[in-house]
Amino acid sequence: MTSTDWAGDALKAVIGRVTVTEFEVGTRFPLFADPDSGRWTTTGRGSWTGGFWAGLLWLRARYTGAAADRAAASRCTARLAPWADADTATRGLILWYGTALASHDAQATALRERSARTCLEAMDPELGLVPWGSALGGPRLLARADGVPGMVPLLAGAGPEGAAAAGAHLHRHLELCLGDGSEHRPWTQPAWCFDAGSGWQPREDPPRGWSRGRAWLLLAVADALHLPTLPGPRAAPLSGAAERLLALGAVLHGPLVPHADAARPDGPLDTSAAAITAVALLKLARLPGPRATQYADRAVEILRRLVGTHLSVPHAHRPAGMLLDGCYDAGRGTAVRHELVWGDFFLALGLAALTGSLDITDV
């Protein structure tokens, strides 16, 4: 795919926003920013989104080639180290995306390898997955769609046993969240809780129409299809899962930017779900198949819409390069039209792929 001027200009704006954010947050981690002022709500330890801030800093370091930017990214990644031993499946989001772009950084590589081992140790063979965990509160024995992305390539890096665990983790979540294809589901069921007496039971939060749940699952499937240790005889079921996820979200023919909850068509949009989906499509487009060009073209359409309609331009009261209209939590009314740090990350990742700054299958 050839580079385009609009993608290059947009990537420059997003990278510039990273520098503005770095100055504002210091050693804290950005979470979401006010759409009018651009001021960030931050966390001290990063929560489940800390890896995306580290990932943005690594993207900036690649973009600028500056030693100071590389050092800043390395310092941020080091602050993620306590999460390696935390009881949470979001270690995939934190420690894969926080280290995957850190090429030739020995400390980040060591952290990723240690995280892969601790996640493998957390694998529950009876449940067939790494449980959601207790680190972020709530019941421990959950399966959630956002516990899959990042966890698949992270586990796969832990040798043959890790690859087997990665495959089991992904397929158990697909069985629960998506079904086996024998029944018609107009939605995904993004969260389940395990009870010793009654087995897996669906949960109402996040809701069935959660657009980011579909996007996370699609991304995890795309990642798995690119892992040489995973597909094998599972390639066909994974490809089928990708097709069902694309159909459920009307990804190839529906709105370029989905509503945060499909059951609330009058509710907020979620540009972060669109950015995740675009990256997943770019990865699927790199696989051989008759629809590769369609996937690539749709990814470009989505990214172009995000840039043309939802990316902030220079303004007296807020910075340029903010991906607006992201929705943190529609049900609770939290940050429903804001800039989200993971939305920025996936937008930057997609733009970097379009401009040839990186190989999308490396992340």
Q: What topology does this entry show?
A:
Layout: H1 5-25, E1 29-33, E2 40-43, H2 50-64, H3 67-78, H4 91-96, H5 106-121, E3 142-144, H6 151-156, H7 159-177, E4 191-195, E5 199-202, H8 211-225, H9 235-248, H10 271-285, H11 292-310, E6 339-340, H12 341-354
Antiparallel strand pairs: 1-2, 1-6, 3-4, 4-5
Helix pairs in contact: 1-12, 2-3, 2-12, 8-9, 8-10, 10-11, 10-12, 11-12
Describe the structure.
With 363 residues, the chain is mainly alpha-helical. Helix content is 47%, strand content 6%. It has 12 helices and 6 strands. The protein has helices at residues 5-25, 50-64, 67-78, 91-96, 106-121, 151-156, 159-177, 211-225, 235-248, 271-285, 292-310, 341-354, and strands spanning 29-33, 40-43, 142-144, 191-195, 199-202, 339-340. The strands form 2 sheets. It has a 3-stranded antiparallel sheet. Helix 2 (50-64) runs antiparallel to helix 3 (67-78) and helix 11 (292-310) packs across helix 12. The model has no long low-confidence stretch (mean pLDDT 94).
